Amino acid sequence: MRVSSSLFFQTGVKTINTQQADLMHLYQQIGTGKRMITPSDDPLAAAQTINIAQSQSLNARYTENRQVAKTALATEENTLTSVSSLLQGIKTRLVEAGNGTLSDADRTVLANVLSNAKDNLLGLANAADGSGQYLFSGHAGSRPPFVASSTGAVSYQGDEGRRLIQVDQTRQLDSADTGSEIFMSAAPGARDYITMADLGNTGTGVIESPIITNPKGAYVGESFQIDFTEAGDGTMQYSFQVFDADGNVLSGPTTPVNYSPDNASLDLPGGVQVKFSGVPADGDTFRVEPVFLSNPHVAAASAGWSGGATLGKPQVTDPAGANVSAELSVVFGAETAPGSGIYDYTVTDNSTPPVATTRQYDSNSSDPLDLGGGMQVALSGVPANGDAFTVKPVEAPANLNIFDSIDAMIAALERPTVADPAARAMFSNVLASTMQRVDVVYDQVLTVRSSVGTRMAEIAAIDDNASLRGLSYEQDLSRLENVDYYEATAQLQLRTAALEAASMAFKKIQATSLFNMNN
């Protein structure tokens, strides 16, 4: 093989350039501290680095989200602590109001105290966070959740939106609770009843302290109305009516029963008992209402129900079903064939626009009537052509608006009761009703505070896990990206020696020629 002078030069220059490039690469690694200067240095490690860096970035983002959630929940916790203390003070004032030795002037002073407490409570209910967003207005954070009218009545103006924050890759957390949930609702799982007397009552009857004597009673969770009437012989009698959450009569009026002031309590139908005292007058009415629902849906037959079918209670078969939150109208048609026991029925979702579907009911079957969209209703017997009923979601009938309760108590305190037994009885009824409502709302505030604490504890646990995960990401990135200085320094010395050797070799080759070789 013939080796030309130009090949000598090209080979020498190429060798020197290669050594210089390797040396430059080592300089860059040591200068930047990175093992990979370009992705081609280690394609697999480069791809892994991108994925880990993205995960690390998300982890940092979730950490910031958790800090936002912690700040919001801490603000809510401080506000609810103040609310709890204020409600305790209101309960103390209500106990003082029950002192029978107080004069009308004393009660007026207590009315002023409660009025100031209501204003303070309204201020806390309209508390805002550091960014000016109202804490308890749901998604409507720019407007106050509670607004007082010209008459002083307070109503909720927020919505039921949940302020969810993504605190981890698979976890969203409520960073606030709504005002309606805190100040106008009972705690989940509460099984309380509250009482009220009609404002037109003229007797001295006082109703208070309802209790559930049979948790499985037929009408537990329904509303009761007690009506007093005077019999022809002057005997006072009472009867009951039972209503569902939509106001439909489930039972009654019952046959009137003689009333005796010696009875310390009245047994309501279906597993509820209520304490009662005093002498009611003819026409006096009292109500006992639950703060909970025995069923979140009611079914009511329409006027003109003429068939032999018996309508039962609705049931939810799929909580995520389309009809769970809808009001449904059901109309039966004629029997499809004589003697078949099969009837067509149409289910209409009363939305905009209405959506109607036709199904079939077998009167010989004991299966519930399927309404679609996650709803069914118990039905037995034979319906008539044209029979109709409705099914719709309902809320607990009791008014638990804490501001309305305080207003009612203030009005009762401002009414004179001295030397007026009927007025005194009405005051006692309002006092008992208000204390029951305040107790229910106070329990709910404590429940929400407990929930806030639970969420803060969960955030702390996620923070701990995220810190460990972040440390793992850093270790993985360091293993993939960072240069080993000991190895890089050794390689630097080796490449420097190699470059010097290449340069010396090139000098030797450069001085070589055919003439010199011949000499």
Point out poorly predicted stretches.
none
Number of helices: 8
CATH class of the largest domain: Mainly Alpha
CATH architecture assignment name of the largest domain: Up-down Bundle
Relative helix content: 40-55%
CATH level-4 homologous superfamily of the largest domain: f41 fragment of flagellin, N-terminal domain
**General form:** elongated
- H/E element string? HHHEEEEHEEEEEEEEEEEEEEEEEHHHH
How much is the radius of gyration in Å? 40 Å
CATH topology-level name of the largest domain = f41 fragment of flagellin, N-terminal domain
| β-strand number | 21
Q: How many domains?
A: 3
GO molecular function: structural molecule activity
GO cellular component, one term: bacterial-type flagellum hook
Family: Belongs to the bacterial flagellin family.
Subcellular location: Bacterial flagellum; Secreted
In short:
The longest helix has 61 residues, at 421-481. This protein has eight helices and 21 strands. Strands 5, 7, 8, 9, 10 and 13 form a six-stranded antiparallel β-sheet that branches.
Task: Explain what this protein looks like in three dimensions.
The chain is α+β, with helices and mostly antiparallel strands. It has 3 domains: 52-185 and 436-469, f41 fragment of flagellin, N-terminal domain, CATH 1.20.1330.10; 189-295, no CATH class; 297-393. It has helices at residues 5-32, 43-97, 104-125, 179-183, 402-414, 421-481, 485-510, 514-518; strands at 146-148, 154-156, 164-168, 171-174, 193-197, 206-212, 223-230, 236-243, 249-251, 257-258, 265-268, 272-277, 285-290, 297-301, 310-316, 328-335, 342-349, 355-362, 369-372, 375-380, 388-393. Strands 5, 7, 8, 9, 10 and 13 form a 6-stranded antiparallel beta sheet that branches. The protein has a 5-stranded antiparallel beta sheet with strand order 14-21-16-17-18, with no helix packed on it. Strands 6-12-11 form a 3-stranded antiparallel beta sheet. Helix 3 runs antiparallel to helix 5 (402-414). It is elongated, with a radius of gyration of 40 Å. The protein starts with a helix and ends with a helix.
